[in-house]
Amino acid sequence: MPRIVAAFVCGLLFGAGLAVSDMVNPAKVLNFLDLAGPWDASLAFVMAGAVLVTAVGYRLAFGRERPVFAEAFALPTAQDVDARLLAGAAVFGVGWGLAGLCPGPALAGLTYAQPQTLIFLGAMAVGLIGGRLAAEATVPRAAAP
After folding, report:
1. Are the C-beta atoms of residues 93 and 30 closer than 8 Å to each other?
2. CA distance 35 to 107
3. What is the widest separation between alpha-carbon atoms in the chain?
4. Dihedral of the CA atoms 76, 81, 87, 90 (nearest 10)?
5. DSSP 75-105
6. How far apart are CA 109 and CA 55, in angstroms?
7. CA 26 to CA 18: how far, in whole Å?
8. Quick one: which of 29, 90, 130, 138 is 20 to 30 A from 84 by CA?
9. Side-chain half-sphere exposure of 132, counting CA atoms within 13 A
10. What is the number of H-type helices and E-type strands within the chain?
11. Which residues of 93-107 are buried (b: 16+ CB within 10 A; e: fewer)?
12. Which residues contact 88 (CB under 8 A, 6 or more apart)?
C-alpha cells in the first residue's frame, strides 16, 4: 500500500508541475518549437529544471543501498538502437510537434477537458493498440508442445 500511495503522490506532483508550468497548453509547446514565429523559450527553462531535479534525484536514489519500496534497483539493460526505437522516437517527435502534446501533459490536461486533448488521447490510444498489434504480428510465436 505505501508503494501505491508514493506513486500516486509522485504522479500528482508531476501533473501539478506540468499544469503550473502550462505544459498542458499545446500552444505553449508549439510556440517553443516554432523558431521562426512567436518563439517562447519558457519550455527550455522547464526542461532545465527537470534535468536538475532528475540529476539530484538520481544522485540521492543511487546513493542508497536499495530503493525504498523494492528489494533492488531495476535498470534497463538494452542498449541497442534499432529500427523500432528510431521509428518510435520519430513518431513521438512528429506527434509532439504537430499536436503540441505528449502523453504526460495530455493526461495532466484531462482536468481541463479541452477537445484537442481528448482527441489526442484517443489517437494515442489507437496508436498504442496499433503498435502492440503490429509488434505481436512480427514476433514469431513459440511452437506449441
Report:
1. no
2. 26
3. 62
4. 90
5. --------HHHHHHHHHHHHHHHHHS--HHH
6. 26
7. 12
8. 29
9. 6
10. 6, 0
11. eebbeebbbbeebbb
12. 131
> Domain map of the chain by residue range?
2-138
pLDDT, tens digit, for every residue of 16-67?
888 888 888 888 888 888 888 888 888 899 889 999 999 999 999 999 999 9
Q: Comparing C-alpha atoms, which of 72, 120, 79, 73 is closest to residue 99?
A: 120
Instruction: Please state, in angstroms and rounded to a whole number, the distance separating the CA atoms of residues 107 and 58.
Output: 25
68-82 pLDDT per residue, tens: 888 999 888 988 898
Dig out the grid coordinates for 123 from the structure: 489517437
Contacts of 41 (CB under 8 A, 6+ apart): 32
Position 135: which residue type? A
